[in-house]
Design a protein that fits this description.
- With 354 residues, the protein is α/β, with parallel strands linked by helices.
- Helices cover 34% and strands 26% of the residues.
- The protein has helices at residues 2-5, 18-29, 43-50, 82-89, 97-105, 119-132, 189-192, 195-207, 224-230, 277-292, 297-306, 332-345, and strands spanning 9-13, 33-37, 54-56, 70-73, 94-96, 109-114, 138-145, 150-153, 159-164, 178-181, 215-218, 234-239, 244-252, 255-262, 265-272, 315-319, 323-326.
- The strands form three sheets. The chain has a ten-stranded mixed sheet, with helices on both faces.
- The longest helix has 16 residues, at 277-292.
């Protein structure tokens, strides 16, 4: 990673994206000079500016700072982007976000959380469990943790939590120590062309896991038979099914209680305030990974109980005569989970989606 250690000035195109901003925060933390462009000022870009990062909002060549060493961009930028094409035409070193993340991860033991939905909650909860358990991890998350008030933390242990994004096949730059696959519902078909091609890419991602590491796959996923036949250490998880599972689920005063079952290991009466049964599945995946990093039952119990969630993931903004919930759900599976969670929490309420 000498090429990254020696650079001084980094320019991000699309710095306000949730994944890009995490990388920007990393390099800013490391003492690099970080600059960036984004189309629109947001709360996130304002926070980055408050942390000392220089950002502009006009795609103009006059805004490019001098002496840029490398450029990091998001594939979401348009092909006619002036600044991107300037850097490209003048032979600047240009990297996708996923390439840089892949380089950074090479020096760590990566706990990767993948899936077309569920990965942000699972990876953020995993990070919270590790921090509570005294594991000084680095984490790149796809949402703003309410506990951390950030999508990035820097740690000095070998452990790194990465939300492994399937968009643009980004997660193929990773070679995890252990990983979770939460879901493989059809998504990003503009990238993959069809559902089968997307499933093949998830199988390829799983094959890049450390051969002696564990891969936790939610029970019932269509790719599971192929993973089981081709790879070692594939373990299934779920609710009342799978090799590792949650059971005895109850909703009491707005919190879920459940038992975690992992062979002879049973943690009874764990409490989590996240709404929806799907989040109990996410918790099972996060707990399973955290145990491999050495976290104790007591720390897991404490972390689940005080986990505050993620901004825009079933975030309750108003709780009065009217309840207003903000949720980022943009996939049929996610929308269904959000609606079911609302019905479970408020069985007598009239629910309106906007």
């Amino acid at each position: 990673m000498a090429e990254l250690a020696n650079i001084k000035n980094i320019f991000f195109i699309g710095i306000g994206g949730i994944g890009m901003s995490g990388l920007a925060r990393y390099f800013n933390f490391m003492g690099k000079n970080v600059f960036g462009y984004d189309k629109t000022r947001t709360d996130l870009t304002s926070k980055l500016e408050g942390e000392g990062i220089n950002i502009h909002y006009e795609d103009s060549l006059s805004n490019i700072p001098p002496n840029i060493d490398i450029v990091i961009y998001t594939p979401a930028i348009p092909k006619d982007h002036q600044q991107f094409n300037y850097f490209k035409n003048h032979n600047f070193p240009i990297y996708k976000r996923s390439q840089i993340l892949g380089l950074l991860s090479q020096e760590h033991k990566v706990l990767a959380v993948s899936g077309t939905h569920g990965k942000t909650t699972t990876s953020t909860l995993l990070t919270h469990i590790l921090v509570t358990g005294g594991v000084d991890c680095t984490a790149f998350l796809g949402g703003i943790s309410e506990n951390l008030q950030s999508n990035f933390i820097f740690g000095r242990s070998p452990w790194m939590v990465v939300e492994a994004d399937e968009y643009d096949r980004s997660f193929l730059t990773l070679h995890p120590e252990h990983s979770v696959i939460t879901s493989v519902d059809p998504d990003h078909l503009d990238i993959y062309g069809n559902e089968l091609e997307m499933q093949k890419t998830f199988i390829q991602f799983a094959s890049q896991n450390n051969p002696v590491g564990s891969i936790f796959v939610r029970e019932g996923l269509v790719i599971l038979p192929q993973l089981k036949s081709n790879l070692k250490n594939v373990k299934t998880y779920g609710i009342d099914r799978g090799e590792i599972f949650a059971s005895n689920i109850r909703l009491i005063d707005g919190s879920f209680y459940f038992d975690y079952n992992n062979n002879d290991l049973v943690f009874k009466d764990l409490r989590i305030s996240l709404p929806g049964r799907h989040n109990i599945e996410n918790a099972v995946g996060a707990i399973s990974l955290s145990l491999l990093a050495g976290v104790t039952e007591q720390s897991i119990r404490e972390a689940l109980a005080n986990f505050k969630g993620i901004k825009r993931r079933f975030e309750i903004i108003i709780k009065d005569k009217i309840v207003y919930i903000d949720d980022y759900a943009h996939h049929p599976g996610e929308l269904n989970a959000a609606i079911q969670a609302a019905r479970e929490l408020y069985p007598e309420a009239y629910i309106v989606g906007i």
